[in-house]
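Batch 3, record 17
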Amino acid sequence: MTAQSETLLAVDGVSLSFGGVKAITDVSFDIRKGEIRAIIGPNGAGKTSMLNVVNGFYHPQHGRITYKGKTRPRMRPYQAASQGIARTFQNVALFRGMTTLDNIMVGRTLKMHRGLFWQMLRYGPAMREEIENRRVVEDIIDFLQIESIRKTPVGKLPYGLQKRVELGRALAMEPELLLLDEPMAGMNIEEKEDMCRYILDLNKYFGTTIALIEHDMGVVMDLSDRVVVLEYGHKIADGTPEVVKADPKVIEAYLGVGH
Amino acid sequence: MLYNIFIDPFVQMAQMPDLLVQTLWEGLVSGVLYALIALGFVLIFKASGVFNFAQGIMVVFSALTLVGFYEKFSAAGFSGHTAAFVALVLTAGVMFVLAMLVERVVLRPLVNQPDIILFMATFGITYVLIGFGEMVFGGDPKQMIASELFLPSGSVDVEMLGGMVSFQKIDIAAAVIASVMIAGLALFFQKTRIGRALRAVADSHKAALSVGISLNQIWVVVWFAAGLVALVTGIMWGARSDVSFALEIVALKALPVLVLGGLTSVPGAIVGGLIIGIGEKLGEFYWGPLLGGGIESWFAYAIALLFLLYRPQGLFGDKIIERI
Amino acid sequence: MFYRETGQFKQSYAADQAVFPILQDRLGLAAILVVAFVIVPLFGNEFLLASVMVPFLILSLGAIGLNILVGYTGLLSLGSAAFMGVGAYAAYKLSTIFPGVNILVWILCSGFFAAGIGVLFGLPSLRIKGFYLAVATLAAQFFLQWCFVRISWLYNDNPSGAIEVPARTLFGLAITGPSATPVTRYLVVLVIVVGMTLLASNIVHGRIGRTWMAVRDMDIAAQLMGIRLLPAKLLAFAVSSFYCGVSGALMVFLWLGAAEPSAFDIKLSFLLLFMVIIGGLGSMIGSFFGAALIHILPIVIRGLPEALGLPIAAATVEHLTYLIVGALIIFFLIVEPHGLARLWQIAKQKLRVWPFPY
Ligand SMILES: Nc1ncnc2c1ncn2[C@@H]1O[C@H](COP(=O)(O)OP(=O)(O)OP(=O)(O)O)[C@@H](O)[C@H]1O
Ligand SMILES: [Mg+2]
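Prediction for the assembled complex:
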């Protein structure tokens, strides 16, 4: 997208450690509204931890995070969710005992407000709300082409489909910022292509801002507007894919010294 | 009111230190026995991840079996120390058979099921043991064959702190035997091949499989070990009171001990046992009258609950790391 | 052949979001209700009504309550009997303090007291999980039971320490106390249980139910979807305890007629847990299956020797019951760890493709 658009999220000097392990050290970067931002780096670089910081699951020891112009205090994950940050996970974190449909319906939780009384009767406002949200969920199911597994318990689905359902669940939240943690890991070429198309479509037609962790460099180069590179918790490069690809530090980090 | 709760009990403690010592000692002894039951839980939980609800009933069952064998022998005109020890060995044999049966009939078919299913299955074992035990041995309380097993009786009265404190010899014996047993188990885990294998299983089932340790054997071994621990507990407990299925409710007290210590920790079971045992006796003696007495029935659970709020994984439990 | 969804196209999401989307299911349910409301009261004898059906329904209600907590929300509880007790004592106190108000009102209100206490003991569930929580719920079990014994105000200083049900009427018909006939008691229980089951089923099929299941399946991901764990878990505790409380009140008022504190001891908690697990975690119909099995099986075992003319002592039969129930628990867990409800589903699945399974 255009480089001039405004900043949606700014990470400023964030450091995070677990006991003695330093997962992230003094990392700053920003995500602009409407862009696809990739976060790459070798295993253990702190990418997942970074996303966890962004949506409030980990609390950094140092640094500030500014989201939608507001520097936010320590917040809880559900608060991040209610501010429009959605997420998929590196190791699929679906609700295994529930069907595809129910999993995605859970994504609508924040959009549903009827309380116990109406829920109990399953009538009137509660039923209307249920149907309105079901309609939205069906659109997502159509978009992701998972109509046939609507009523299948997700535990029984193959891995690639699970990742797709997980994306659907995140989309159901109608997020402004979508965090994707290795959405294509373990997929074959066709599945990857499908997933790339969904991500691009999302970005293009719905204007969703996306932060993406991915190991497949080809995918990263094709999809992303800008890339930030982490290594051992430090940021070593930041810029457009072409710039980053040419950066000697990145080449070294990926290929190791002496190559 | 506040005075009664926060000051008066301590004044009493200071005024009559001999009574305090007596209470502490009684707490210590029941704590040791709780710890022993909890130890049986920990053994099984560590090696197989099964929360074995049947441990309490195994205590009762083994004690009843022991007494039952001895009664048969003495009915045949064969009694005394030798008979008692033969009965002991036979009971150990029964516990081994039980371990085998449990592994074959219950654990093996349920491998890889969720924890709660295995937990429920041990409820099934509990019911089977209760039904079977009562059918064979009847529901009446029985006398433990304490003196035949060279366990002392009577008490030592020590004059101290301006009063008399009396120590039951059997309690002293219980404390000593429990300590020996715990040391023995620790050695077994550290030094023997099978002990190391057990620890490997505890750390990772897959790892254990990949170095060629048979899970089935290990289950039999831990259940047998837990059975022996149950037997010892049953003897000590039976010697202090009677042997009957009423012990079952006492065995439930091992649960707060267990969570207090952290489900997987042997030292945790011991420390937890002592805390609960002593806390409970102190609570009952000094604070119980304020509430109308009988608080022993829930005090242990309340201690455990409050403690867990502060440290959800127990004293020595592995810290729960949440990742995603 | 006869049970299938082919040809039943849903015209709207409303139809598809219904609790029973398949026509035959609805017909089956209707048939069951006809049997329960018409056939059983007409043809059932006193034993069937008073000793089989009434307890079965009341225990089912308790099992539904526990299932909401254990099966739907994944919070293991060993204290459900104590919450039943809270309901029973609350109903007793209310009905003796305000004798003018209809007893059914108090029976339903007693649920709120149980819910309140349940929420109190549910507070630790935010920090404490799994087996640790199970043990923590034992604190509720033993503490509340101690209260039932020690606080004599709860049983109106009755010297026996028991609560005795006063005789009360509805539309002039005795529904509690010795003069209430089994048929009226059965029908009253049936109406309450069916109604409350319907409500519970609605809850678990809607947003709240999904929230609970999300917490059960993966609480971290649930949080990241905007679900707040504490309110979700406390609501589960509240609803669950409400059901247990009403079930406890019904148990005393329409089944036992009088109860001592030991009626709500830990054995009952265990029995409810068996029902839930054998019936099927996270299944409404499973709660009924489980209650049927656990309640009716011992009756059958007790009755069998007599029916066959075998001279077995009563005590032995009691022990045999334990043995057999224990063995059956293990058996069912091995055959189908997901409970009778899953077996039922599989059977329906088979029926759906019958007679051409390919
Ligand atoms: N909850 C935690 N407790 C302790 N250490 C943690 C925790 N979460 C992450 N770490 C550590 O922080 C470091 C960074 O981990 P992170 O998962 O963020 O890496 P990553 O870049 O996502 O790696 P990968 O490509 O393998 O997913 C690692 O050393 C990891 O062990
Ligand atoms: Mg990662």
